[in-house]
Amino acid sequence: MKQHIRKLSDFPASELPDEFDARRKWPLCPSIHNVPNQGGCGSCYAVAVAGVASDRICIATNGTVQVILSSDDIISCCISCGACTGGDSLKAMIYWVNEGIVTGGRDGCQPYPYDIKCGIPCPLLEFAKNAKMQRCHHKCQNIYYRNDYFNDKHYGIFNKYHIKKIIQ
C-alpha cells in the first residue's frame, strides 16, 4: 500500500464527525461552493487541488483572503503532476506547498484555457488537442491582470496535524 494511503487509513474513525458540511462551517468562504468544469482536459487532479487550496487559504484567514487558484498553473507548470491526460493530486498538493500556485478563475493570472463547453461527454479529439497545448508560462496569461506571475504565487502547508486542527 502506498505510504500516503496507509497514513490516511490509520486515522481513527471515532475522531470524525457523523455529518459535516463545509459550507456551513465556513460561510465566509464562497469558493467552497464552486464546482468547476474541467472540460476537454483530463485535469480532475489539478482542478480538485486548486479548489482545495483556494478553500484552505480562505479558511485559514477566516475569509479575509479569497482567491481562486489556477488549475492551469498546475497542469502546465508542474512537470511531475501530469497534464491534460490525468495526473497525481498528491504531487499537485506538494507543488502548491513548494512552488506556489497563481490565481485563476476568470479574472486571475492564469485563467483556465480549455473548452468547458465541449459537450458531455467531451469528444476524445478535444482531449488529444489539449494534451498538445500545455506550456508553462511564467507570466500571467490574462492581459488585464495587473500582478506579476511570481508575486501572485500562493503557498500552502501540507501537514496532517494542521488540517486536523482546522476541521475541529
Structure write-up:
With 168 residues, this protein is an all-alpha fold. It contains seven helices and two strands. It has one domain: Cathepsin B, Chain A, CATH 3.90.70.10. 38% of the residues lie in helices and 2% in strands. A two-stranded antiparallel sheet has the order 1-2. α3 crosses α4 and α3 crosses α5. It is globular. The relative contact order is 0.16. The mean pLDDT is 85.
Give a quick precis of the structure.
The protein has 168 residues and is an all-alpha fold. It has seven helices and two strands.
Estimated share of beta-strand residues:
under 5%
Radius of gyration: 17 Å
Calculate the mean pLDDT score and round it. 85
Q: What is the CATH T-level topology?
A: Cathepsin B, Chain A
Task: Report the end-to-end length measured between terminal Cα atoms.
Answer: 28 Å
Strand numbers in spatial order across the main sheet = 1-2
Alpha-beta content class: mainly alpha
Largest sheet: 2 strands, antiparallel
CATH architecture: Alpha-Beta Complex
Number of helices: 7
- The CATH class turns out to be Alpha Beta
DSSP helix fraction: 25-40%
The helix/strand order is HHHHEEHHH
Descriptive key words:
168 residues, two-stranded antiparallel sheet, mainly alpha, 38% helix
